[in-house]
């Protein structure tokens, strides 16, 4: 199976691998493709049993070398005004191809797979690992499943290039992401009698206000003492994007629920905010609730989306990518990615991939053919490096 990047992209886009659907068909296709080239690989299942990650190695299976990392899941298309079939790659002849995932990030995946024959021919002295992960868009558990394998003795690459859309610029930083789900349990009484009840809505309002104040404190500190360079904004942001609670205007609300997102800058730990928040709840909020009714209280659940990616002092991945692209400017991105997880696992990591993030997740998502060409050229250079 000798296929171009564009032909492979056409095949990959045709699998509707929305994060919570199954990706078995795509994985079967890629497995056949790898087998046809005699490339050894492993399929690593996700906990959900419906999604799978692929880890393939071209060249000698020795420590060092590079990992090319791309996710194969895509965001949903439901409710978006697509003018073409999202799961059919459309070439309108305008220098772009359209389809869900064309930019984020099956374009990179396709370029990597298309480069396999060249990798095999080059006589690699250092391995090129190909890591195609599931579930990047929601939990990033695909990357975690692969990292667990490194911990259990898989040969670990020394550097990683995550091909998220960056217009083939060398991106050395992204923010991290944590999410907190807060559930406030009140005590329901008629509002005419509200002092013997606990309003979950009133409590939620206080907590949300605390979160906003914590966010504004970070902003004020950064404005006074300087934020993290290159990031805009250069501080960790806290935000509540969703809430609901209560059942009627004249009942103290029994339940309220809201969701907080925390976008951390490199060097800042999302867990710090969770601890401060929990401390505030347990010492200042909950005792007063429980004094009115013992069943009232607050529960929180948090999820680490992923740590931030920071610039490494003399990072190998950055050095190599700068040499190959000629890009010497500093770029950071506002979106979260798997790169922070791989860096945290001790692998020198940057982001460099085709397409512009502005097209990601959009209806009529597209990528320029010239971006795929640039990525092909980048990979050809990388292969040369690994064969030298
Ligand atoms: Zn992505």
Automatic annotation (TrEMBL):
Annotated TM spans: none
Cofactor list: Zn(2+)
Matching CDD domains: M20_ArgE (cd03894)
Alphabetized Gene3D superfamilies for the sequence: 3.30.70.360, Zn peptidases
A Pfam family that the UniProt record links to this protein: M20_dimer
Keyword list, A-Z: Amino-acid biosynthesis, Arginine biosynthesis, Cobalt, Cytoplasm, Hydrolase, Metal-binding, Zinc
InterPro entries (alphabetical): AcOrn-deacetyl, ArgE/DapE_CS, Bact_exopeptidase_dim_dom, Peptidase_M20, Peptidase_M20_dimer, Peptidase_M20A
EC category: hydrolase
Protein EC: 3.5.1.16
An individual GO BP term: L-arginine biosynthetic process
Keyword hit for Transmembrane helix: no
Location of the Peptidase M20 dimerisation domain: 172-285
GO MF annotation list: acetylornithine deacetylase activity; metal ion binding
Signal sequence extent: none
Family under the similarity heading: Belongs to the peptidase M20A family. ArgE subfamily.
Protein name: Acetylornithine deacetylase
């Amino acid at each position: 199976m000798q296929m171009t990047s564009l032909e492979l992209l056409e095949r990959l886009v045709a699998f509707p691998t929305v994060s919570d659907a199954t990706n078995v068909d795509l994985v079967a296709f890629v497995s056949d493709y790898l087998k046809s080239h005699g490339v050894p690989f492993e399929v690593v299942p996700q906990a959900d049993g419906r999604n799978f990650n692929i880890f393939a190695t071209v060249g000698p299976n020795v420590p060092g070398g590079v990992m090319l990392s791309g996710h194969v899941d895509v965001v949903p298309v439901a409710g978006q005004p697509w003018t073409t079939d999202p799961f059919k790659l459309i070439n309108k002849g305008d220098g772009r191809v359209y389809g869900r995932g064309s930019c984020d990030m099956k374009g990179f995946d396709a370029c990597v797979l298309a480069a396999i024959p060249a990798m095999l021919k080059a006589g690699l002295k250092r391995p090129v690992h190909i890591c195609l992960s599931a579930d990047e868009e929601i939990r990033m558990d695909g990357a975690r499943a692969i990292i667990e394998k490194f911990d259990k003795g898989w040969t670990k690459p020394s550097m990683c290039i995550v091909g998220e859309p960056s217009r083939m610029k060398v991106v050395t930083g992204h923010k991290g992401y944590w999410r907190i789900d807060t559930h406030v349990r009140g005590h329901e009484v008629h509002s005419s009698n509200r002092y013997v009840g606990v309003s979950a809505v009133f409590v939620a309002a206080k907590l949300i206000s605390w979160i906003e104040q914590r966010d504004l404190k970070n902003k004020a500190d950064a404005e006074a003492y300087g934020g993290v360079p290159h990031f805009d904004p250069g501080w960790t942001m806290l935000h509540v994007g969703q809430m609901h609670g209560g059942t009627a205007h004249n009942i103290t609300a029994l339940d309220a629920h809201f969701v907080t997102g925390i976008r951390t800058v490199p060097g800042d730990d999302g867990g710090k905010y969770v601890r401060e928040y929990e401390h505030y709840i347990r010492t200042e909020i909950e005792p007063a609730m429980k004094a009115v009714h013992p069943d009232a209280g607050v529960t929180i659940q948090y999820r680490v989306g992923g740590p931030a990616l920071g610039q490494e002092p003399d990072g190998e991945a950055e050095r190599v990518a700068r040499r190959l692209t000629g890009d010497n400017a500093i770029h950071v991105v506002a979106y979260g990615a798997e790169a922070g997880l791989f860096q945290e696992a001790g692998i020198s990591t940057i982001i460099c991939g085709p397409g512009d993030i502005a097209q990601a997740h959009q209806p009529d998502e597209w990528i320029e053919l010239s971006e795929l060409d640039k990525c092909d050229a980048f990979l050809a250079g990388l292969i040369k490096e690994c064969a030298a």
